[in-house]
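Weekly structure sync, notes
Attendees: PL (lead), two postdocs, one rotation student
Agenda item 3: pending single-chain targets
PL asked that the sequence for the first pending target be pasted directly into the notes so everyone works from the same version. It is reproduced below exactly as submitted, 216 residues in total.
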Amino acid sequence: MPIPQPTTLRRAGLLGAVGGALTALSGVVVQGIVQPASEVSDEMWSYPWSSTALVPVSLLNALFYALIFAGILGFARSGVAGPGRGARIGTVLALTGTAMLFAAELLSIPIADQRVGETAAVLVTVCFALGALVSGIGFIVAGVPTVRARRWNGWRRFVPLATGIWLTVLNALAPTPALALGVTLYGLLVTALGVALWTQPTPSTPHPRTEAVQVP
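Predicted structure, written out during the meeting:
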């Protein structure tokens, strides 16, 4: 598959960076403002939002994931992870997991007034968990060849791997009050991925490592 024009990839990177930045901002708002002031029981699915407020919040979060999806798609099409199977499988998994997170946000709307232990709420929880896990595995699988391919300069080539590692940790934070803080860090990492694509949309030629000259 031919690599898209740099302008197209830059646009994808910008969309991903915006989605990531808004996700990070939403995590800060929830952690620092909404949770401390919330009077909603943490046994409710909508916590810390009211069931009414969760509807627009879920729609906004779904929009953020759609923007992030665009950024990941640009990363997948840029060729910076190399031509290998790991790059292809990893980016497909990262996209699939992000699509699952998008779907989970929309599925949250009809269960806004349910308790977390009800069947529908449990199923949506599983959708969120699987989405984060699949996306995390995908970023790791694609992140390793990205580091090895050295087609991104400097810090950029480490961002996909770091994103994958953090997403696998994020599931462990899901049952805790620190989830919003974890989402903030995820948003920052995805923002970095978008910025990396925006600032370097096309692969650079990898420089061979200098071999030491052995003196007989």
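Discussion points:
- Residues 94 and 135 are 4 Å apart (CA to CA).
- The chain has a mean pLDDT of 92.
Action: rotation student to compare against the earlier draft before next sync.
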